[in-house]
UniProtKB/TrEMBL annotation:
<feature type="domain" description="FAD-binding FR-type">
    <location>
        <begin position="153"/>
        <end position="256"/>
    </location>
</feature>
<keyword id="KW-0349">Heme</keyword>
<dbReference type="InterPro" id="IPR017927">
    <property type="entry name" value="FAD-bd_FR_type"/>
</dbReference>
<comment type="similarity">
    <text>In the C-terminal section; belongs to the flavoprotein pyridine nucleotide cytochrome reductase family.</text>
</comment>
<keyword id="KW-0001">2Fe-2S</keyword>
<keyword id="KW-0561">Oxygen transport</keyword>
<keyword id="KW-0521">NADP</keyword>
<dbReference type="Pfam" id="PF00042">
    <property type="entry name" value="Globin"/>
</dbReference>
<dbReference type="InterPro" id="IPR008333">
    <property type="entry name" value="Cbr1-like_FAD-bd_dom"/>
</dbReference>
<keyword id="KW-0479">Metal-binding</keyword>
<dbReference type="InterPro" id="IPR000971">
    <property type="entry name" value="Globin"/>
</dbReference>
<comment type="similarity">
    <text>Belongs to the globin family.</text>
</comment>
<dbReference type="InterPro" id="IPR009050">
    <property type="entry name" value="Globin-like_sf"/>
</dbReference>
<keyword id="KW-0408">Iron</keyword>
<feature type="domain" description="Globin">
    <location>
        <begin position="1"/>
        <end position="141"/>
    </location>
</feature>
<dbReference type="Pfam" id="PF00970">
    <property type="entry name" value="FAD_binding_6"/>
</dbReference>
<dbReference type="InterPro" id="IPR039261">
    <property type="entry name" value="FNR_nucleotide-bd"/>
</dbReference>
Length: 383
C-alpha cells in the first residue's frame, strides 16, 4: 500500500503529471537506450517503438497503477498486473531490470517537469514505482519457480519438426527439442515468446499462442505473416529442420478448473488459445457445457477450421457457431454467450472489448471474462 504521506501527494500531482506522462515515456526510452543500447537491439519491439505503442503502454501502466493506489475499492493490484508479469516472464525479465529502468525513468520525469518535481513529489512517485516493480517482480518470481527455471533463464532451442499451411499466409509450426525429448507441459491457453535473430545479430521477440502438436509432447504455434512484419515474415519462411529460440510457456488466459459452462470466443488467428483449450477438454473427456463462437473473414482464411470442428464434435456438450464477415464486432450479440460460467476471448482488441461488454450484458461476471492481448496498452484491460 502507498504510505499515508504519499497518498495526498499522488492525488494532487496525478492530474498534473498525467498530461505529460506520454512525453515522459518517450524521454525515458531515449535515456534507457542511450544507457543500455542492447535493450533496443535485442528486447524491445521495434515496431511498437516506432509507432509509439510501447511509450503509450508504459504511460498507461504507470498512470493506472498510481490511480489504483489512491482509489477506494480498486481491484487487487497483483491481479491487475498479472498479465504484464506473465509477459515479462516470457521475456526473461529479472529483478535487477527494475533497477536499470528506475534511473532513466526518473531522469525523464525531472527533465520534462522541471521544478515541479520537488523532493516530496519525487519521493512519492518513487514509492509508486517500487510498489509496481515489487508487485511485478514477485509474480514473475512465482512464474519462474512454477516453470522450474532460474529468474530470467527462460530461453531454449527447439527444432521445427513440421510446417503446415493452414490458411493463405498462415503457417503452423510444430516444435520439438533437438534430442527428441518431450517439451514441458503447458496450460491450455498459454503462449511462448519466439526470439528471431537476424543477420546483423539483432534480436526481435514476439509472442505466439501454443497448441498441442504431435502426441510425443511437441508444441505447435500458428504464425500469420503480417505485411512488413519483422518476425512473422521470417517465421513464415522457416522449414523443417530449422532451429528456433523460444521461451518457457507463459500467459494468464488459462482454463479455470471446475465444471462451469465455457464460452470460447475468437476472431482470426485468435483461434489458437481456444483451440488449445478444446484439445485439453477432449483429452480429459470433459462433459462441461462448451459453446464455441469463431469469427473470420471467409472460409478460406479460417485457420484450423476442420480441426476445431472435429474437436467440438468430440465433446458431449459442445456446440459451435462460425460467422464469416469483415466486421468481426458486428458478428457478436448477447445470444453468443451462455449466461453463466467462464468466457475466454482472443482476437483484435476492439473485438475483445465488444465480447467483454456483451458477455457482461448476458449476465457473466466481468471477472469471469478472460482474454489474452499481445498489444502494449491492452494488458491492463479495456477500460
Amino acid at each position: 500500500m502507498l504510505s499515508e504521506e504519499s497518498v495526498p501527494v499522488i492525488e494532487a500531482t496525478l492530474p498534473v503529471i498525467a498530461p505529460h506522462i506520454g512525453e515522459i515515456s518517450e524521454r525515458f526510452y531515449l535515456n534507457l537506450f542511450a544507457a543500455v543500447p542492447a535493450l533496443e537491439r535485442d528486447l524491445f519491439n521495434r515496431t511498437n517503438q516506432e509507432n509509439k505503442d510501447q511509450q503509450k503502454a508504459l504511460a498507461g501502466a504507470v498512470a493506472a497503477f498510481a490511480t489504483m493506489l489512491i482509489t477506494k475499492d480498486a481491484p487487487p493490484i497483483d491481479q491487475v498486473m498479472a498479465r504484464i508479469a506473465a509477459k515479462h516472464a516470457s521475456l526473461g525479465v529479472k529483478p535487477v531490470d527494475y533497477d536499470v529502468v528506475h534511473t532513466p525513468l526518473f531522469a525523464a520525469i525531472a527533465e520534462v517537469l522541471g521544478d515541479a518535481v520537488t523532493p516530496e513529489v519525487a519521493a512519492a512517485w518513487d514509492e509508486v514505482y517500487w510498489l509496481m516493480a515489487k508487485s511485478l517482480a514477485a509474480q514473475e518470481a512465482a512464474l519462474y519457480e512454477q516453470a522450474g527455471v532460474a529468474p530470467g533463464h527462460v530461453w531454449t532451442s527447439v527444432s521445427v519438426l513440421e510446417t503446415e499451411n493452414v490458411a493463405p499466409g498462415v503457417v503452423a509450426l510444430t516444435l520439438g527439442l533437438m534430442d527428441g525429448a518431450p517439451l514441458p507441459d503447458f496450460r491450455p491457453g498459454q503462449y511462448i515468446s519466439v526470439a528471431a535473430v537476424f543477420e546483423d545479430q539483432t534480436r526481435q521477440i514476439r509472442q505466439y499462442s501454443l497448441a498441442a502438436g504431435r502426441p510425443d509432447g511437441s508444441w505447435r504455434i500458428t504464425v500469420k505473416a503480417v505485411p512488413n512484419g519483422i518476425v512473422s515474415v521470417a517465421l513464415a519462411d522457416v522449414v523443417a529442420g530449422d532451429n528456433l529460440i523460444v521461451s518457457q510457456p507463459s500467459g494468464s488466459l488459462t482454463l479455470r478448473d471446475g465444471d462451469a459452462p465455457i464460452t470460447l470466443v475468437s476472431s482470426g488467428s485468435g483461434i489458437v488459445p481456444n483451440l488449445s483449450i478444446l484439445q485439453y477438454l477432449v483429452k480429459t473427456n470433459s462433459d462441461r457445457q462448451v459453446r464455441v463462437v469463431h469469427v473470420d473473414s471467409a472460409p478460406s482464411s479460417h485457420a484450423h477450421r476442420n480441426e476445431m470442428a472435429d474437436l467440438v464434435s468430440q465433446l458431449p456438450n459442445g456446440s459451435a457457431k462460425t460467422v464469416y464477415t469483415a466486421d468481426s464486432q458486428a458478428a457478436l450479440n448477447v445470444q453468443s454467450f451462455q449466461r453463466t460460467g467462464e468466457v475466454y476471448v482472443c482476437g483484435p482488441v476492439p473485438f475483445m472489448r465488444t465480447a467483454r461488454d456483451l458477455a457482461v450484458e448476458a449476465g457473466i461476471a466481468e471477472s469471469a471474462v478472460h482474454y489474452e492481448a499481445f498489444t502494449p496498452g491492452s494488458w491492463l484491460g479495456f477500460g
